[in-house]
Amino acid sequence: MSENGQNGNAAMTTTGRLVVLRHGQTVWSESGQHTGRTNIPLTAVGEQQAVAAGERLRMAFPQGFDDDCVFASPLKRAQQTARLAGFPHIRTLDDIAEWDYGRAEGRTRQTVSDMGGFDWNVWSDGPTSLPESMNADWEERLPDGTCVHVHAGAGESLDEAAARACNAIEQVVPLIEAGHDVLLVAHAHILRILTSQWLGLEPGFGRLLRLDTAHYSVLSLYKGDRVIERWNC
Fold this sequence. Notes:
two-stranded antiparallel sheet; alpha/beta; single chain; 6 helices
């Protein structure tokens, strides 16, 4: 956020802040299965986490967020988190859907490495490095009985995910420049990639940013620079 100064009567331009919130726990966030576009719901713990995140956000931002300044990924786990956190008026933003993990979808890193034949890492190798032989579609039953469809296909590169993140930033910057705080409710990888793009860094920088389930971070402007104001709160 740009400097408010010490004189409340001084003329100044105040910009808003960009707040990013990761969704609550899912079964796969606990098992380590890559959860990109599979429409998996929150667990009971994840639902509780979302409620608690909303309480923390209201303490940190007592003025709240205007209805047209709350955006969520189209995926169920993000939409659930936003509503349980106390934001019923959500604008869906497709560009903050999670990174499409392609042939890693629904699989752990170890499984992907075994199937791919090399020590695979999503950040350094990306989904598009995996062989077509890993293409698959299946139905997976979760512990609560919910059945989800899993598609493991081509996926998208890190640069492609970063381009989406840039599009999302461009869409919300006018609101921020007009002085509004903006809330994005989405997923760990895309929010870490988005943060790298906010800072003007290579998207791989997101690898160094830990963002836990149902934790939020604040991106803002300080003396003309885009900065991280708070992280993993």
